[in-house]
Specification:
The complex is a heterodimer.
Chain A (H helix, E strand, L loop, with lengths): L1 H15 L2 H30 L9 E7 L2 H13 L5 E6 L4 H13 L4 E5 L1 H6 L3 E4 L5 H22 L4 H8 L18 H35 L2 H8 L2 H33 L1 H9 L4 H28 L3 H27 L4 H8 L4 H11 L4 H29 L9 H9 L2
Parallel strand pairs in A: 1-2, 1-3
Antiparallel strand pairs in A: 3-4
Helix pairs in contact in A: 1-10, 2-10, 3-6, 6-7, 8-10, 8-12, 8-13, 8-15, 10-11, 10-12, 12-13, 12-15, 12-16, 13-15, 14-15, 15-16, 16-17
Chain B lengths: L4 E10 L2 E11 L3 E6 L6 H8 L7 E6 L2 E2 L2 H4 L2 E4 L11 H11 L4 H14 L15 H13 L5 E5 L7 H16 L3 E6 L2 H7 L2 E6 L2 E7 H8 L3 E7 L11 E6 L3 E6 L5 H11 L1 E8 L3 H10 L4
Parallel strand pairs in B: 3-8, 3-9, 6-7, 7-8
Antiparallel strand pairs in B: 1-2, 1-4, 4-5, 9-10, 11-13, 11-14, 12-13
Helix pairs in contact in B: 3-4
The chains are: A mainly alpha, B alpha/beta.
Chain lengths: 419, 301
Amino acid sequence: MRRVWIIAQREYLERVRTRSFIVSTFATPLLMGIFLLLPALIAASTARGIVRDDARAARIVIASDNRALAELACGDLMRQRGARYEPSVVSPASPSEREKLDKRLDAGEIEGYVWLDGPARASRHVVFATARAGDFVLQRRLGDALSYALAAQRMVKQGSSAGDVAATLQPVDLTVVRAGSSLSEYNEMRGAMVVLILVFVMFFSLLSYGVMVMRSVMEEKSSRVTEVLLCAASAQELMTGKILGTGSVGLTQVAAWLAMAAFGASRSLYLRTAIEALDVGPSLIVYFAVFYVLGYLLYSTIFAGVGAIFNSIDEAQQWNFVVILPLIAASAMILPVATSSDSLSSVAASLFPFCSPILMFERIAVHDPPRWQVALSMLLLVATIGAAMSIGGRIYRTGILMYGKRPTIRELSRWLRYP
Amino acid sequence: MTPTVELRGVRKSYGGYAAVDGLSFEIPPAHIFGLLGPNGAGKTSTIRMMIGIIAPDSGCVRIFGGPIRRRALSRVGYLPEERGLYRRMTVGDNLVFLGRLAGLSAAAARERIDAWTRRLETADWIDRRVEELSKGMQQKIQFVAALLHDPGLIVMDEPFAGLDPVNTMQLKDVLVGLRAAGKSILFSTHRIDQVEKLCDSICLIDRGKSVLQGSLSGIKSGNGRRFVQIDYEGDGGCLAGHPLIDSLNDYGNHAEVRLKPGADPQELLRTAMRGLRVTRFQVMEPSLEQIFIDRIAGRDD
C-alpha cells in the first residue's frame, strides 16, 4: 500500500504541476463564465445604451393584394417577445412588384419577403424568399404571424370584435414543472444546460484523463523507467498507483471548478441566481461523483492496457479510436436521451457499461429513472470494471516489458493466459 | 556461506522460443560476477528473473538464501541498460522518488542522495531536469539510484555504456569499494576488457545456455597456456612432429606453437632445450576475448 501511495503521489504531483493542468483548470470555467455572462452583459449594456447592438433587425416585406391581412401579420410579428423585425407591407402583389422585391433582396436592402397572393391564401401554402434561410426562429415566427393574420381576418369577417379576436388567438404560455423538483417552475433551457455542462465535463474528463494514463504508461515504458520501478514494486501496484494518482488529478480539477463556482456565486448575484437556477441538488452531485469515478476507473484501466501494448502514441492512435468509440456513441446519444429519457433505446444505451457513466447520469439529471435501472447500470459497470482490471492488468503486466514489434492479437491472447 | 544469488536449471521461454535454457550459477557475497554473452543470448531475461520482474517457467531462483519475495527484492539495486529516469523531473525528484519506493524515508533518501552525488561529482546537477543531462551523466544518476537503499545485491546491465574513461574509473572504484563492503555485484556486458579487470568470476551464455563459467583465473588456466612462443638458435626442425604440438609456425629463429589440450609446456621446453639454444620461451596467456570467440563460434576442441 505504501508503494501504491508513493507512485500515486508522484503521478499526482507531476501532473498537477504541469502548465496544461493549470491552464485548463482556470481557462475552462473562465470560458464557461464568459459564455454564461456575455449575453446578459450585452443585454444589460444595450438596455442602458452603453453599447449599441449593430446587428440589423430583419427587414421583412409582406407582399399581398390584401393589405389588411398583411398588416395583421406585420402587427403580430412586431408583438412577439424579443422580436427584432422591421416588417413592411407591399400591396397589391403584382408580378412587377415581385421582380422589384427580388432585386431589393439581391441588393441586400431587405432580408426577405413573403408572397401572399390569392392562390397562396387559398391553399395556405406561402413562399418566403429570404437571404436568411438558416434563421429558423424567424421562419417559425413568420409562420405563426401568418396563421394568426389569416385566422383573425376570418373571425372579423364572421363578425367577431377585435377584443374577441385577441382573446381567442392569444397564444398559450406553457409552464413546465419537473416531477420531484425543488423548484416549482422548471426552466427548460436551464435544465438542458446543466445536463449538457455536466455531461460535457464527464465526457472530456473521461477522455482526457484516460488518455493521460495511457501516455504515462507509454512514457515509462519507452524510457525504461518501468524496469526500475518493477524492481521495487509489482506491476499491479504500479498500475493501481498510476490510475489512482491520475484520477485524483481529475477529481482535483472538478473540485477546483466547483470551488470556483461557489466563490463566483458568493461574489456575484447574477452568477448566484444563474447557479441556483441550474437546480443542482446534492444528490445529483453525488451521482455525478459516483459515475465519474466508476467511468474513470473503467476507461483508465483500458487505456493503461492500450498504453502497455504500444510503443508510441502514433502506434496507439488507431486503437485508441476503438476505445473511444463507445464514448463518441454516448455523446451522440446525449440529445435523444435528453428528449426521451425513458425510450427503449435510451434505457438500453444507459445500461451499456461503456456508455452508462454519461447516459445513466444524464437520465438521472433529466428525469428520475426507475431505481432498478440505476442499480443495474451501476452493477454492470462495476462488473465490467472488474473484468477490465483483470484483462487490462494482465496485458499491462506483460506489455510494459515488451519492446519493438507491435504484438498481434494472438500474442495478446497469449499474454492473458500467462500465470 | 549462503550465496547471494543462486540459479538452478532456470528455464524461460517466450512462445516456444527458449530465451533462457537450463541456466545455473551462484554468486557468493563480496563478489563481482560478470554475465557475458552476445546480443540476444538471454542476459536480460536472466537478469529480469533475478530481480523478480518475470518468473522462470521451471527451475529455481533464490536470492539471499530464499525465494524471490518483495522483502528480499528490497535489498536489490538495479541499473537497467538504458536510462530509466523520468525525463521531465529533476534529478533530485527522481532520486527521492526511487529512494522512497525502495523503502527509504524522504529525509533519509535526501541525505544519501547528497552523499552519493557528492562522491560522484554530480551534486551540481540535482535541480536539473533529467532531459538536460548528457547520456553519461544520466548513467551516473542511474547508478546513484541503484545504490541509494544500500542493496546487498547490485544488478547492472551494461553499467559502463556511454561513460568516458574518467567516469568509468570512478564507477569502477565504487564497485570495488562495494565488493570490499561485502556486496555482491552482477553485471552484464559484452565489453570483455572490463570483465577482465573487474570480475572475480564469470558466466558466458549463448542462446540461453551457459557456455563457460567459473572463476576468471580458473577459466584462463583451463583454457590457456596452450600458446607458446620460442626464440632459438639452431635447427628448429627438431620440434616438428612433436607429440605435444597441435600446430607449429616456424620462422627460422622464432616459432609459434599451439599445444594439444592438456599438454604441459614444461615438457615442450625440455624437448626444445635438448635440440636448440633457447633464448626466450614464453607461455602466452590467452585473452578472454579469444576464449569467447572460440567458444561462441564453436571452434573449441
